């Protein structure tokens, strides 16, 4: 069971849950529990079954797919107020996880047992609406990722990714290694390093030890275009 304060924080992150009726809310609160995870904790592994549906309230979860070796690709991140599409499909479809989820920072969530989640989805129009909206959004994101990986050159992908990340940080330099950039883009370090070095030679970015700063956003935007 979660406290009134924990439920209030959950509602703050997921405003759509305000539309649950009194009975649905009572069942949710009674079955839920608060969980805390350290940075780097495993949330789910490929082939695992979903036991709890996590409602992220603080922190972030990185969801990746890999080839069983050193290469992996970032599929999406789950931030507070967002649902994990794989957790949703595994919970409702009774399938296993096809990817890996790990926390990127200290993370807090509300865990709801799968059986109770399924029951509430059937009963609550508010919860169904939230689930369907989340599935639609994530599907578009994954399709965009597939299109990018399949049809765009690596330089375009690196440039677009740098613009997005730098924009999210309001121009603050990114504290990332070349390997970490490669992991984000589902590539390997060597070709990503060549692209970054070329962008630096052209004056579009500045590189340092675990530091990437965008110095010419307009020029980088041109490189990101098809």
List keywords for this structure.
single chain; 226 residues; alpha+beta; Jelly Rolls; Arc Repressor Mutant, subunit A; 2 domains; four-stranded antiparallel sheet; three-stranded antiparallel sheet; 9 helices; 49% helix; elongated
Explain what the structure shows.
It is built from 9 helices and 9 strands. The chain folds into 2 domains: 4-150, Jelly Rolls, CATH 2.60.120.10; 153-224, Winged helix-like DNA-binding domain superfamily/Winged helix DNA-binding domain (Arc Repressor Mutant, subunit A). The model has no long low-confidence stretch (mean pLDDT 89). It is of the alpha+beta class. Helix content is 49%, strand content 21%. It has a 4-stranded antiparallel β-sheet. Strands 1-7-3 form a 3-stranded antiparallel β-sheet. Strands 8-9 form a two-stranded antiparallel ribbon.
CATH homology group of the largest domain: Jelly Rolls
Question: Structural class, please?
Answer: alpha+beta
The percentage helix is 40-55%
Strand segment tally? 9
Oligomeric state: single chain
Question: What's the arrangement of strands in the largest beta sheet?
Answer: 2-6-4-5
The overall average pLDDT, rounded, is 89
- Termini, distance in Å? 51 Å
Overall 3D geometry?
A: elongated
- The Cα radius of gyration reads 20 Å
Segments where pLDDT lies below 50 for 5+ residues? none
As a percent range, the share of strand residues is 15-25%
Query: What is the third-level CATH name, the topology of the largest domain?
Result: Jelly Rolls
By CATH reckoning, the class of the largest domain would read Mainly Beta
